[in-house]
Amino acid sequence: MTDLTADLTSLGVKEIRDGVARGDFTAREVAEAFNAAVAEAAALNAFIVTTPDHALAAADKVDADRAAGKELGSMAGVPIGMKDLFATYGIQTTAASHILEGFLPRYESTVSSKLWDAGAGMLGKLNLDQFAMGSSNETSYFGNVTSPWRKAGSNAAMSPGGSSGGSSAAVAARIAPAATGTDTGGSIRQPAAFTGICGIKPTYGRCSRWGIVAFASSLDQAGPMARSVEDCAIMLGAMAGFDPKDATSLDMPVPDWEAALNSDLRGKKVGIPREYRMEGTDQAILDSWEQGKAWLKDAGAEIVDVSLPHTKYALPAYYIVAPAEASSNLARYDGVRYGLRELPDGSGLQDMYAATRAAGFGDEVKRRILIGTYVLSAGFYDAYYTQAQKVRALVARDFERAFAECDVILAPTTPTASFPLGSMTDDPLTMYLNDVFAVPASLAGLPAMSVPATLNPDGLPLGLQIVGRPFDEQGVLNAGLAIEQRAGFTARPEKWW
Amino acid sequence: MSNYRIQGATGEWEVVIGLEVHAQVTSNSKLFSGAATAFGAEPNSQVSLIDAAMPGMLPVPNRECIRQAVRTGMAIAAQINTWSRFDRKNYFYADLPQGYQISQLYHPLVGEGSLLIEADEKAGIAEDKIIGIERIHVEQDAGKLMHDQHPTMSYVDLNRAGVALMEIVSKPDMRSPAEAGAYLRKLRAILRYVGSCDGNMEEGSMRADVNVSVRRPDEPFGTRTETKNVNSVRFVMQAIEHEAMRQVDVLESGGTVEQETRLFDPGTGTTRTMRSKEDAHDYRYFPDPDLLPLVLDEDFLAECRASLPELPDAKRKRYIEVLGLSPYNARELTAEVETFARFETLLAETAKAIGKDEPAVATQVANWSLSVAPGVMKALGDEGDPANATAAAQAAILAMQDKGEISGGQAKEIFEIVLKTGRDPAEIAETEGLKQVSDTGAIEAAVDSVIAANADKVEQYRAGKEALFGFFVGQVMKAMQGKANPQLVNQLLKGKLG
Q1: What is the per-residue pLDDT for A2?
Q2: Does the distance separating the beta carbons of B98 and A332 come in below 8 Å?
Q3: How many CB atoms are located within 10 Å of the residue B232 CB?
Q4: DSSP assignment, residue A385?
Q5: I need a labelling partner for A47 at 20 to 30 A (CA). Which of A404, A473, B271, B305 fits?
Q6: Closest residue of B to A213, CA-based?
Q7: What is the mean pLDDT of chain B?
Q8: B-chain residues within 8 Å CB-CB of A213?
Q9: 3-state secondary structure of A470
């Protein structure tokens, strides 16, 4: 039994789904194995709450359906982790904040509903940076997540990336075969890169935002995090689709990405953006980028140089647009209707707002609310917000022009590998730089993926990023698959937890 | 030109008025959620997850609300912007669950238009005047705080939160309380014609923010104040009057008018400071990132246009030019939806009953509708049941009158019985003896006996004293107990007297 458990938790989405369908093992066995692995991994602090019963119930349903000869969904029997930014019916949904601690939604997000409909079950709600604001998973009210990875020869606790750090840690540690993430400015790709897994942010609008606690509405996108490109394709297929409840949702059919996976890149052009060659980028990252080019060339693609001239303005623009939207999106957490309420003796409405929000939000959230409030205020709006929107349009135009010359763009996902927890908490600007390669695709709403490439000399994973044209998730996944096949990335963190 | 002037101690002052009218859009559900909008429901019974701003909830525009605003824009001949956008107006208040109101600051749905207020001597409006309308935008209403439910806490009712409002912003084109009143009444009529707002000011479905400033005639605009949420035409006029006087007093005593937001107190008819410019909110408007720009296509616009009814000005013109009504009658009949609807139904019924076309009977029907029928109903008071005043019954009365079967006086008497009992007018005329005699033989006999009995007067008449004709008519009518058809009496008398 122990052996079987170990075997089952090493399986990915496709292997579990197909194994359950074939009858190699039952969905319940899979759920039990992962529930046990989750219970053992408390040291990672990847989950805010665990929901073993949810996973078991979903598994039993799949087993019963299979026994009854019913058709099984694309995620049938796969227990997943759910980033705690997705509202889940009757299960605490906090965005890793104190202000929403204990909040039990009476609704289910569109994306999680679709996953349950596809036969997935839930292992628990995954930790994250508070309100998805952070790149290291250190802003959670429920404590930081610790990466399962460690530097060679060191016991220092490392960052799993952020904001989807619970997701990346859980998938890398094999306590979940896959997890949902959300990406506003790199929050799927950066943690995926830090932990040696795959993660894709689809085109803005592919996945409904309904029921996802909003950070920056014009940027937020849900996506899957898993250990293979194919698993990402399967899970994205279950998550995506038009939703009339989200006015920004794409009213387009969802292609069968899994079926159309093809790593033969003959006839495809891969663009290398020269502006991504930035100072401060690790040599190992630059080396892996070179390696990536060689792999894609080997897969038949032609490598071309492209220019994205406004790249250096993307990060500052992002740190205006995202906080501006966040400052407004987070105004609803006011202590009036749900969540935390701090009502000091004799206080009025304004005092209640101040006390509730002071106690309910962490420092990074407050910082971004302040930035956002400032850039939208009278007299500064044009200089900041309007200007940032212009930059955003220019960044999008850069990509449009580049995609006239290539089919996908290859770049590093991050400028460095994972860093020790606590090493950057006093330096928010350096922390923000982590997303320098991820943010441009977010501003342009483009599909982008991180795929593990190699380990750096410290034994930490490095990821490569592929950015595609709007709606061309297939092109991104195919290039990702070509890299995956050539990288042969099989490294996994040694279990210390 | 308005000649309304405030006579100050130091000379004349002109008042400059602009109105921002908030009109609740008539629709079954809210602007961005599916929750119902009925007035008077139990507190918090019409609140969706979106209205309560639960985490992760998203607004989706309600097409019907947009349609109603576009139709309203078309009704004031305004520019319809086929590309518009929603903005967030950010501020904290307990009746505003999202912490922002979704509104349209930068790119409103409807651009410039105008409406006509008509000359009204009695109200002091010398001539017709066009009032410019700056824009109409759509936005969410807020909820309501209830302060009387608990000794130390306020309760929040979110039923109204998220209901669609049109904010209709006039230009500063009005120069007297009367013009502002006329503008409001006209706007209300247009909204009700179009069906985009029920115009019910008591229930709060229409309220006005009143911008007032004063200046010396022909000088530049003065500093304005804004008096919020005034909810009747009379109050708006009172607020203007009071606020203008107050500003004149301030200026004449050497002070300056502060740009500020004020509140109207209906009890005293006065305004007072709500918040000064220094306390003004910084609303941090920015485009709502949850919503895409609103793009209207030609089909949508064509449908909106096609669904517009005949509007007040066009109807009034038609009543005068086609139906031949007096300008007064035309204005009265077109002022309210109910009035013209009743009139047009009765007109059609009457024309059918008489067998003539509508213009031929329109004046008769108009006089009946505006003066005769209301007079009878008023005199009758509670004894009459308005439900009995069907178009069919009234048309039957008018037709009998038109054919000479009954006199005007008999028409009123019959209508009175109809109102009391709901009986059939023809049956009443028959049973109650309320018919004129149109029997030529009977009238002729009466004429003959009157002529015979008044030989001397007949002689005088024939000698040229034509004024005596009325005497003969009176005598014949008396002999007929007032029931003779006067036309026949005239006709026969003329013939016999030669």
Answers
A1: 44
A2: yes
A3: 15
A4: I
A5: A473
A6: B56
A7: 93
A8: 55-56
A9: coil
Q: Distance between CA A492 and CA A471 in Å, rounded?
A: 32
Whether residue B351 contacts residue B361, with contact meaning beta carbons closer than 8 Å, is answered with yes
Please answer yes or no on whether A331 and B98 come within 8 Å at the CB atom. Answer: yes
ipTM above 0.85, yes or no: yes
The per-residue pLDDT for range A249-261, each reduced to its tens digit, is 999 999 999 999 9
CATH level 3 topology of A2-262: Amidase signature (AS) enzymes (3.90.1300)
In the predicted model, what is the mean pLDDT of residues B255-268? 93
Chain A residues lying within 8 Å of B97, measured CB to CB: 332, 336-337
B chain contacts of residue A324, beta-carbon cutoff 8 Å:
286
Backbone angles phi, psi at B157, to 5 degrees: -110, 120
Question: What residues of chain B, 27 to 56, have a C-beta less than 8 Å from chain A?
Answer: 49, 52-56
Residues 6 or more apart whose CB falls under 8 angstroms from that of A489 comprise A196, A452, A453, A454, A461
DSSP B159-217: TTTT-EEEEEEE-S-B-SHHHHHHHHHHHHHHHHHHTS----TTTTSEEEEEEEEEE-T
Reported as half-sphere exposure (CB side, CA atoms, 13 A), residue A284 has a value of 15
Query: Residue B490 — very low, low, confident or very high, per pLDDT cuts 50/70/90?
Result: confident
Contact A450, A192 (CB under 8 A): yes
Interchain contact B291–A (C-beta under 8 A)? yes
Among the partner-chain residues B56, B99, B289, the one whose CB lies closest to the CB of A212 is B56
* Most B-contacting residue of A128, A212, A215, A334 (CB-CB within 10 A), to test interface: A334
User: Catalytic one among A74, A97, A163, A263?
Assistant: A163
Helix (H, G, I), strand (E, B) or coil at B225: strand
Per DSSP, A407 falls in state S
Helices and strands, number each (H, E), in chain A: 17, 11
Query: What digits encode the pLDDT tens for the residues B345-404?
Result: 999 999 999 999 999 999 999 999 999 999 999 999 999 999 999 999 999 999 999 988
pLDDT over 70, % of chain B: 99
Lookup: tokens for B467: 């004024």
**A-interface mutation test, from B33, B44, B49, B57, most A Cβ less than 10 A away:** B57
Whether residue A310 lies within 8 A of chain B, CB to CB, comes out as: no
Burial A357-370 (b: 16+ CB within 10 A, else e): beebbbebbbebbe
In this predicted structure, what is the pLDDT of residue A4? 56
Q: How much is the pLDDT for A1?
A: 41
The string of pLDDT tens digits covering residues A449-460 is: 999 999 999 999
Sign of CA dihedral B40, B46, B51, B54: positive
CA B454 to chain centroid, in Å, comes to 57
How far off is chain B from A488, nearest CA to CA, in Å?
A: 39
CA–CA dist A347, A324 (Å, integer): 29
Q: How far apart are CA A20 and CA A36, in angstroms?
A: 19
Cβ-Cβ contacts under 8 Å, B59 against chain A: 247
Q: Is A211 on the interface with B (CB under 8 A)?
A: yes
Per-residue model confidence as pLDDT tens digits over A477-487: 999 999 999 99
Percentage with pLDDT > 90 across chain B: 76
* pLDDT confidence band for B477 (50 / 70 / 90): confident
The answer to whether A460 touches A193, Cβ cutoff 8 Å, is no
Two structure tokens written together for B140:
């969410």
pLDDT digit string (tens) for A91-120? 999 999 999 999 999 999 999 999 999 999
CA–CA distance, A465 with A411 (Å, rounded to integer) = 5
pLDDT in tens, B398-447: 999 998 889 888 999 999 999 999 999 999 998 988 887 777 788 888 88
Q: Can you tell me the distance from the alpha carbon of A242 to that of A248, in angstroms, rounded to the nearest whole number?
A: 9
Domains of chain B: 6-303 (no CATH), 312-423 (no CATH), 440-497 (1.10.10.410)
> Does position B1 have pLDDT exceeding 60, yes or no?
no
Task: For residue B170, list its beta bridge partners.
Answer: B133
